[in-house]
């Protein structure tokens, strides 16, 4: 194996998907499995498909292209770019939208290609990321319905990702009320009312999910086993579907505090240090160009992560019960931000298990 490496346990990922799909199905909710954090690696997406996901969802056309041979509908999560409307029609069955100009361009592209493309109209319920305002949504839906080549499949919202607004029964009920008004006004039936992401899962436990919500877009809850409203672990899921592995390239005893006047580091920060005396320190062949060290947790819980530069990560192994040597591999679990960067880095080997 080449290091640094990201090991991916497909069995655990499939288990997490199945567990959450079954949990959501109990409440009449289908799951769009979000593949963006691992850059749409087809083998990993296939594990989600085997776990029962209804859709595969990603923010990047490039990732949807990788998954084009997987037999599930594909959903584009990020609002489409005008420059990519042809690719959206080619590789996405459904896209989330909030701009009429873009929706109109999708309509024209779909007509030229002889296709019908499904639209989910996004509604901003206060998180201040994408979406039309709630009081504009019905009128906006009417404008979409007037276009050919596309179909208004449903409406959705996004919460917690930007403004950190927590999904609640009251704000998600506004979404279902809008769906009711659209259906009554235009005599149609919306097939998807998408009530957000992994931050909405806790509402199921509380019995507070509005009844018409029938779709959730789940990423972190599947890949890391976390709900994201309050950061709690989800019982019955694995947190170690992904493991980061790095090799020790130096191992020496050194003092805890640098010698000399402290300025700023390579990233413009002025670091502070805790004087622990002479400690056994290992340098790993990985750094900030690969991932976010602050998002790592050593599987050997006696290890302390001291810091990192672009290419070197420094850890304290003094208290470990393991006698580390040059060339040994140190393993870590990752949070969402670290996993996102590790998946994106070309310097990290992706190993499917």
From TrEMBL:
The keyword Isomerase applies. The keyword Isomerase applies. Keywords: Isomerase, Pyridoxal phosphate. Residues 8-223 form the Alanine racemase N-terminal domain. Its cofactor is pyridoxal 5'-phosphate. PANTHER family: ALANINE RACEMASE (PTHR30511), LYSINE RACEMASE (PTHR30511:SF3). This is Alanine/ornithine racemase family PLP-dependent enzyme. The lineage of its organism: Bacteria, Bacillati, Bacillota, Clostridia, Lutisporales.
């Amino acid at each position: 194996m080449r290091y640094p490496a990201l090991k991916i346990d497909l069995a655990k990922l499939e288990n997490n998907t199945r567990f959450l799909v079954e949990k959501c199905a109990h409440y009449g909710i289908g799951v769009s499995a979000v593949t963006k954090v691992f850059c749409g690696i087809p083998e990993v997406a296939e594990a989600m498909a085997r776990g029962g996901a209804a859709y595969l969802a990603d923010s990047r056309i490039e990732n949807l292209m990788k998954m084009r041979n997987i037999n599930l509908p594909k959903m584009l999560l990020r609002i489409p770019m005008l420059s990519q409307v042809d690719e959206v029609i080619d590789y996405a069955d459904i896209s989330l939208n909030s701009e009429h100009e873009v929706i109109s361009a999708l309509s024209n592209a779909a007509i030229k290609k002889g296709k019908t493309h499904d639209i989910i109209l996004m509604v901003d319920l206060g998180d201040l990321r994408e979406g039309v305002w709630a009081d504009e949504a019905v009128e906006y839906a009417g404008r979409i319905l007037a276009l050919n080549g596309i179909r208004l499949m449903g409406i959705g919202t996004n919460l917690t990702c930007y403004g950190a607004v927590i999904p609640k029964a009251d704000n998600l009920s506004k979404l279902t009320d809008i769906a009711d008004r659209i259906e009554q006004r235009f005599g149609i039936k919306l097939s998807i009312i998408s009530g957000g992401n992994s931050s909405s899962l806790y509402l199921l436990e509380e019995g507070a999910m509005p009844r018409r919500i029938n779709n959730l877009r789940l990423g972190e809850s599947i890949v890391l086993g976390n709900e994201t409203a309050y950061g709690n672990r989800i019982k019955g899921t694995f947190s170690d579907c992904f493991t980061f592995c790095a090799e020790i390239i130096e191992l020496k005893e050194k003092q805890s505090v640098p010698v000399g006047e402290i300025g700023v580091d390579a990233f413009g920060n002025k670091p502070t240090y805790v004087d622990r005396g002479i400690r056994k320190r290992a340098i790993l062949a990985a750094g900030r160009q690969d991932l976010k060290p602050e998002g790592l947790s050593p599987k050997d819980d006696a290890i302390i992560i001291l810091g990192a530069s672009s290419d070197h990560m420094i850890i304290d192994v003094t208290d470990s019960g393991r006698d580390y040597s040059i060339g040994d591999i140190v393993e870590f679990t990752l949070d969402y931000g670290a996993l996102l960067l590790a998946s994106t880095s070309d310097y990290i080997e992706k190993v499917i298990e």
